[in-house]
Every structure is written in C-alpha cells, then in structure tokens.
Here is the input.
Amino acid sequence: MSEINRLVIIGGGWAGIAAAVEGIERGCHVTLVDERQYVGGRAHSFTEKHTSTEIDNGQHLLMGCYRQTLSVLNKLNTQHLLEWQRALRVVFVDVNGKRSILDASKLPGILGIAVGILRLQSLRLSSRISIIRFALMVLLNRIQPDEATCIELLNEHHQPSDAINAFWKPLILATLNSPLEIADSGMLIAVMKLAIFSGGENSKLILPATTLGDLTSPATAWITNQGSTVRLKSRAESFVIENGRITHVKLNDGTNITADAVVTCIPVHALKRLLPSAPISEFEVSPIVNVYLWYNGSWLDEPLVAMVGTLVQWVFNKDNQGRLVAITISAAADVVGLDSNELITRCDEELRNAFPTMKGIVLLHSLVLKEKTATPLFKPNERTKRVVDYSLLPDNIGIAGDWTDTGLPATIEGAARSGVAAIQRVLQNQTRQ
Ligand SMILES: Cc1cc2nc3c(=O)[nH]c(=O)nc-3n(C[C@H](O)[C@H](O)[C@H](O)COP(=O)(O)OP(=O)(O)OC[C@H]3O[C@@H](n4cnc5c(N)ncnc54)[C@H](O)[C@@H]3O)c2cc1C
Here is the structure.
C-alpha cells in the first residue's frame, strides 16, 4: 500500500466522493474541498418550498452495471436505499396512450433482452429483428466506433424509422443526453455492451428509493470518521507550484492547504479557471429539463415510463401512485428556453392524452428545473478532448470528472470510475518518486 499523507481532493461530486473513498482505503489522509455546502455535486437534492418535499435537482437513473457507484454506496451504507428491477423492464407509451413493454424477465441474461425486444408490440416484427441483429453485431465487436454520430450509425445498419423513434431514441436520450444527430456512436456502443445488452444484473435499472442527497450526504461523516477532513463552502482558487509539483492549494478564504498530491474532480470549465495552463478544451454543454407535477389522486402504477413522440421523454413515479411525478426532458437545448408555464401545460396535456386514468385528476402544483449545464456534449470528432495530456501538468496531480476519458457517457458511474482512476494515478506517481 502506498501512502500520501496530504491528499487534497477538489470537488465533492460523485468523482470526488469515489476518489475520497479510494484514497482513504489506500491509506491516504484526504482533505475533500467543495465550494457548495453539500456533497453530491450535480446529483443533489433540496427542499421544495411550497410542498416541503425533498426533491432532486433532476431524476437520476442508475443501472446494475454501475459497479463503482454501487461500491461507493456500499461503503457509505446507503446501498439499501436503491430499488432494483427484477430484470430490465421499460414501459413505452406513445402519444395516444398505446403501451408496449420491454420485459427481459422471461429468460436469463441476454436471451431475456432478445425475447423482450421480440415481444415489443409497438414495432413491426422486421424492426424488432433489425434491432436484435444490430445489437448482436455490436456485441460480437463487428461494429467499431468510428467518427459516426448515433443517427449515422443506426442508418448505416439499416435501423427502420419505427425502431429509431420508438426504441433507440428514448434510450439514447436517456443515456447520452445528446440528440441522435450529434451523439457519439462510440458512447452508444459502450452503453449497449456494458448495460442494455449486457443482460442480467448489468441491464437492470435502479431507482433511488429516496433522494440523491440521502445517498451521498453520509459521505461527509464517513470521511471524517476515518480521520480525514471535509471542507464545504470552500473554493479552491489556485495552486502553489514548485519544481513541477503542487505544494499548496489556495482556498477562497485565504487558507493554504499543504498537499503531497492533488486530485481535481471538477467540471472542465472550473479546472480551466483553477489551472489556466492546463492543456484542456471545454465542451459544449447539454441541458436537461425536469418538470415535477403534483396531482390530487393516483393514476400511475408503473415506476417509470418512456414516452414516445412527445415532449415528455420519461416519467418517474415518485410516490408509486402518480401523485408526484418527475418528468425528464434530456438533450433539451431547444426546450430550455421555453417559458416554464408553457412547459407545465404541455407536459400535463401530454400525460392526460396518454393516460386515461388521469380523468378527473387535478394538477395541484408544479415546478420546472432547468439544468442548463447538466452534462458535457460529447461529439464523435472531439473524443481527444476527453484525454488529459499529463506531460504538461504538475507531477502530483490527477484529473477526474465525468468529462474525462472514461469510455462512458457523462454519468454518475463515469464520474465515480474517473475518481478512482485518478487516485490510482497519483499513488503510482508517488511510488515512482
Ligand atoms: C438533471 C440531471 C440529470 C442527470 N441524470 C443522470 C442519470 O440519470 N444517470 C447518471 O448516471 N447521470 C446523470 N446525470 C449526470 C451526473 O449527475 C453527472 O455526470 C455526475 O454527477 C458528475 O459528477 P462529477 O463529480 O464529475 O461532477 P460534479 O457533480 O459537477 O461535481 C463537481 C463538484 O466540484 C465542485 N467545484 C467546482 N469547482 C470547484 C472549486 N474550484 N473548488 C471547490 N469545489 C469546486 C462543485 O461544487 C461540485 O460539487 C444527470 C445530471 C443532471 C444535471
């Protein structure tokens, strides 16, 4: 085991929490610094004033393949706050309310997924077969990521329009937060292999049974109980660098923290401010809009629904009855500028058109959350932007965050993996000193 006595981790989102856990487990003394007053970063919760409900800044969906995320939650002892599907199950509902269910529970593993797709009533049989053929080619490594966007790849492999609109589009928007015309096909291939078409545990969807804050807030106590330190409401403003190594991290309150090594777990624009000489380029960002709707009665018994052909993309049932639902609109560049009242009206109308069970149900309250910088937008011809050139950086720094070269879309799991990888890097460098 290699030790760093003074390891400073900047940023307490998922990358920072995973890095802190890894660093402490490997014997380092960690100081975790975040400018916010809570850990969790872009995946956090707050109290909605009108109803006093604890809600998330946006619904987050996890999958069984989120191994690093699950390992961190295990450490924090909050893994029991997750609700796992028995097998991958997605209910698709179209604009007129026609339902079609992808249910992978009939057979184990990948066969279950194939049977689930073959039984998808909303698609023509030939389209279902096309999806399976394409997935098989991906799984057999017959399709390698080139510079294609998702739509180019799907067209190249003859995916019919109903398969694209009613199957690929909801999955791509949810996992890549990017329009099909821009989204990196390499990320789609990664998600297909690791998650959707992996089968078994990996393909299961996982919903937090509680708020995101409940999942991550115990991190502060866990870290301090191990003898390490958490400094919230503290912004890292600059570094003192001597002989090519960071010796101190300067905080906004004037404090200097002595550092043997530093791991940054912050978005790329924040890193550019902190270390202007870093050889990194910023990404365009992709917004996500969430609409919370409170109703006066029960109308929904599914935990989640993918909507097809509507502004609403996914509906999450927050109380198992539909009295509170969270609607997600990903890749929302064209939506984020709309007036909130218009968004609420449109979402409510679309739900009423698709769900006859809403007859007589009254909308009591609503809230629109616009996360304008939800995730970076990864384009196929910009992959190298995610690769950090360490040769031009101080020796004792590690760089993490969902935007780094994780091979995954910008997700909690990508962030968590990047945090662990950055710790491994600084520890290896330390050993070589
Ligand atoms: C609405 C929404 C929905 C999403 N849905 C999903 C989903 O369903 N599934 C999924 O897996 N992912 C989802 N994501 C993406 C996921 O939330 C992010 O990929 C992940 O949280 C990023 O973690 P991170 O640690 O890389 O960065 P962040 O969470 O951004 O953490 C960075 C932290 O660094 C701090 N910081 C920045 N600069 C400084 C500084 N100079 N000094 C100190 N602190 C600093 C910030 O305060 C922040 O806490 C969603 C994101 C949003 C916004």
The mean pLDDT is 96. The pocket of flavin-adenine dinucleotide is lined by residues 10-16, 33-36, 41-43, 57-58, 60-61, 235-236, 265-267, 270, 274, 288, 290, 371, 374-375, 401-402, 410-413, 415 (CB under 6 Å). The radius of gyration is 22 Å.
